[in-house]
Amino acid sequence: MSGRVLSFEPPASRNGSFLALELLPGRVQGALIDPAGRFRARREARFDPSAPRVKILAEVDRVATGLARSSRLGGCVISAGGVLDTAHGTMVQVVDMPSLEGCAIAEHLHTVVGAPTLLEHRARLQVQGDHYFGAGQGEETFASVATGSTLGVGILYQGMILAPDGGRSGAHMTVAAGQITCSCGKRGCWRTIATTAWLREQGRPLEIPDQDLAGWEKRATSDPRAAAVVSEYARNIAVGLANIQQLCMPGLFILHGEAAQASDGFRATILETLRDLSRTGGETEPRLVTTSLGEDDSTLLGGVALLLHRGLPSIG
């Protein structure tokens, strides 16, 4: 498995902006970002993830063109989950947006915005964003963790992305064989027990209406049932991280999303469980940090890092 060396020096002479887009089930967001990582403009649109391809692409185009018309672009990058053919810019398997499977989205966007366009997995871009603009600056090895409605881990190992091009981000690793059926068709994926959707499922039999972790944590201060669910949720997140620690020993885990915004006690449960399950010790003893960058901002900034690293034509 080959990595991708991450190194660039943003040229001081470079002007203009890059267009970074992130495609999630039901939402597309984009930003114009300069080579120094400064956000110049943002746009967002929502859609039905089960909609036909033409309707989803119409929303992607609306965000892209709304941003592109205000700047001469040096390049465009779009991130997504699932299985991607990054070499050809094609979405191969997207279980949450099935109409996009087989879509040559990079070529489509190249035509729409008139700039060189790359497709990359969002977990890979998130770790790049952390490395160049966030809490991973100066680190050669760490894992960047997305939590909440989405789940995934990008790994930087000795300065290289440790994942196959377009590969998965760990959400579908099997951690509970024979248990809950995942949207991918398998049973027991990490994703089935460690996302906000799992919390909502736990709330139904308990008649607890809270939709996110913040609500659950607030309720947990006075409801032992909610406290037990919150604790189990933290341990569920740790199970997947422990597998990654055992295999790759990143040591440092940068948290994004719900886990980053949760209480110190929630993260302490993750860390305690992670250390108990992995027990690697030494310099790679697991530690957790949060970041000042938002989860989506890290992904968008990672797109800028990728474009600069690829050496696309300079912006005039």
UniProtKB/TrEMBL annotation:
Keywords: Transferase
InterPro entries assigned to the protein according to its UniProt record, in alphabetical order: ATPase_NBD, ROK
Domain of life: Bacteria
GO molecular function: glucokinase activity
Membrane-spanning residues: none
EC number: 2.7.1.2
EC class (word): transferase
UniProt-listed Pfam families: ROK (PF00480)
Family the entry assigns: Belongs to the ROK (NagC/XylR) family.
Name of this protein: Glucokinase
Lineage: Bacteria, Bacillati, Actinomycetota, Actinomycetes, Micrococcales
